[in-house]
Amino acid sequence: MKRKVFSSKGQLKKWAKKTTGVILTSLTLLGSVESIEFKFPTPKAISHIMETDPTVFPEGSYAISYSNVEELDSSNLDYSKMAMVIAFEAQLADKKTFIGGLRFLIEHLADFKYCCKINKTNPAYVTASIWVIEPSDMVEFKALEDILSKYSAFYAFNDGTGTLNLNNARMGKGSANHMFEI
Question: Where in 30-101 does DSSP place strands (E)?
């Protein structure tokens, strides 16, 4: 496993655009906000997200760990066909009860390709920005839609407009329907 440190978001973006044949094992924002975690399958996914939604990556230094792969085939992934998802988990004042579908959403996305940024900077809540590659199989697509509807706070599928609008954006049930104790 190799590790590389970038002093800026721009350096990371430049590296991600030109790098192929690796699998990312971790991506971390260094400095005072050490509790932000990212999950991306390939450098191409990082590059795409940095191009389409630059707010996902705060300014700062980044460390990346990766492994070389002989035959990584990322050419069959169409990053223009991604669903955008927002989810959270919040701890209520009694300190035992949590609300939100984030934990369940991550569990149910195990069979899908996705990348996410999980922000744990506030001890009372955790938020996540997630991009899920839309499956081409309609049965899998419907399963993904059902999962996002049930566990996310908000989600949107690409409708070709390049915008979030009333035709593609939906409120999920993950903000109110999931209350649990730990």
Answer: 36-39, 62-68, 82-91, 97-99
